[in-house]
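Design a sequence for this backbone.
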């Protein structure tokens, strides 16, 4: 990343993993891929290696561990042995060590670990830290859909993640934004160490995007589309250096890359966050 320039990460959640998408991403200068062990029916790593193994050296590759095939379909686990084995398997299936491995939604299992949540999270983090030390991946982080549940579990004695991935964008609620900010401070992470995901809340065609004009968040928004403006504003809600975004169309990816030239109006973002906080307090009253 050049200075504070925003970076696009091609997310493969719900992707068909087509080679044309990866070549299109490279043509656009997008050189970061994000996947997970459970994507594409637990076949993402193998399919990537088979269809685009020659392209993977041109990307930095992040993946996630935490979900496993189970008798009922998919199960989540923070068991250190299973996590360590999953990182080993990821490297084998990809044909290379991942540049980054995320602990995937640890909150999914923490409710089952009561009253030992902090110990369970620390042990899971230690497993990924150990995998990194052994060269199975270059770094590790935490990807959390609901960071609020992690706030009380941060332990100064436990290994610290190198990267935090959380939801970002105009549809993220005040509580999630504040929790993300608190975790960033607790782990002393810089902007480049924080990634956003799901910047459109799942779809750019959702009705909500017909009811608002995200261009008000940009100083020069009129020259960009609403989709581009929403994507650019997401880098400030909360403040992140990279956003993982999924698509199967290189043209859509190109539109988003084009939106990075927009300049966000920070005062508008802060006013928006204040309104979110006020609304959240009113609803809790």
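Sequence:
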């Amino acid at each position: 990343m050049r200075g504070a320039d925003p970076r696009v990460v091609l997310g493969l959640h719900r992707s068909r993993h087509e080679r044309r998408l990866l070549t299109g991403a490279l043509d656009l200068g997008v050189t970061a891929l994000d996947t997970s062990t459970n994507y594409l029916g637990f076949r993402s790593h193998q399919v990537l290696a088979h269809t685009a193994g020659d392209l993977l050296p041109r990307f930095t590759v992040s993946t996630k561990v935490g979900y496993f095939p189970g008798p009922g379909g998919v199960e989540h686990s923070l068991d250190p042995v299973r996590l360590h084995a999953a990182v080993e398997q990821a490297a084998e299936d990809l044909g290379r060590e991942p540049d980054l491995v995320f602990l995937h939604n640890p909150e999914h299992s923490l409710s089952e670990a009561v009253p030992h949540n902090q110990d369970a999270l620390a042990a899971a983090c230690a497993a990924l830290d150990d995998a990194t030390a052994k060269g199975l991946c270059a770094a590790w982080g935490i990807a959390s859909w609901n960071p609020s549940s992690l706030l009380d579990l941060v332990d100064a004695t436990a290994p610290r993640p190198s990267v935090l991935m959380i939801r970002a964008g105009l549809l993220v609620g005040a509580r999630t934004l504040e929790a993300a900010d608190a975790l960033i401070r607790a782990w002393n992470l810089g902007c480049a160490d924080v990634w956003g995901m799901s910047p459109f809340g799942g779809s750019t065609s959702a009705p909500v995007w017909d009811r608002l004009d995200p261009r008000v968040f940009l100083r020069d928004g009129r020259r960009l589309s609403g989709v581009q403006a929403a994507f650019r504003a997401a880098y400030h809600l909360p403040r992140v250096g990279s956003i993982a975004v999924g698509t199967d169309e290189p043209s859509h990816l190109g539109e988003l890359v084009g939106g990075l030239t927009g300049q966000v109006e920070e005062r508008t973002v802060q006013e928006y966050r204040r309104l979110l906080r006020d609304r959240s307090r009113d609803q809790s009253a």
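The first strand starts at residue 7 and ends at 11.
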